[in-house]
């Protein structure tokens, strides 16, 4: 499958949408909950 087709099939979200304009979002995977943080230097940190 061409790389373009693979990229088009993968969902994509803006981090700012996930955090609703804030700096932190909670993400659930099964029973686990993770925190997604946007740093001051515009990097992402995902922690459990």
What this model shows, in words?
- The protein has helices at residues 3-9, 15-18; strands at 24-29, 32-38, 44-47.
- It is built from 2 helices and 3 strands, in the order ααβββ.
- The chain is globular.
- It starts with a helix and ends with a strand.
- It is α+β, with helices and mostly antiparallel strands and 48 residues long.
- The protein has one domain: Complement Module, domain 1 (Ribbon), CATH 2.10.70.
- It is 23% helix and 35% strand.
- A hairpin with a 5-residue loop joins strand 2 (32-38) and strand 3 (44-47).
Task: Give the helix/strand layout.
Layout: H1 3-9, H2 15-18, E1 24-29, E2 32-38, E3 44-47
Antiparallel strand pairs: 1-2, 2-3
How much of the sequence lies in strands comes to: 35-45%
- Biggest sheet details: 3 strands, antiparallel
Q: Could you name the ranges where pLDDT drops below 50 across 5 or more consecutive residues?
A: none
Order of strands, widest sheet: 1-2-3
Task: Give the total of domains.
Answer: 1
Gross CATH architecture:
Ribbon
Kindly name the structural category: alpha+beta
- The outline comes out as globular
Order of helices and strands: HHEEE
Termini Cα gap:
34 Å
Number of helices: 2
Quote the CATH topology. Complement Module, domain 1
Helix content: 10-25%
Radius of gyration: 13 Å
Specify the oligomeric state.
single chain
CATH class: Mainly Beta
Number of strands: 3
Give the overall pLDDT as a whole number.
90
């Amino acid at each position: 499958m061409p790389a373009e087709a693979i990229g088009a099939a993968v969902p994509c979200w803006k981090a700012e949408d996930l955090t609703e304009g804030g700096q932190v979002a909670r993400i659930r995977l099964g029973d686990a909950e993770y925190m997604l943080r946007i740093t001051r230097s515009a990097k992402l940190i995902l922690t459990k």
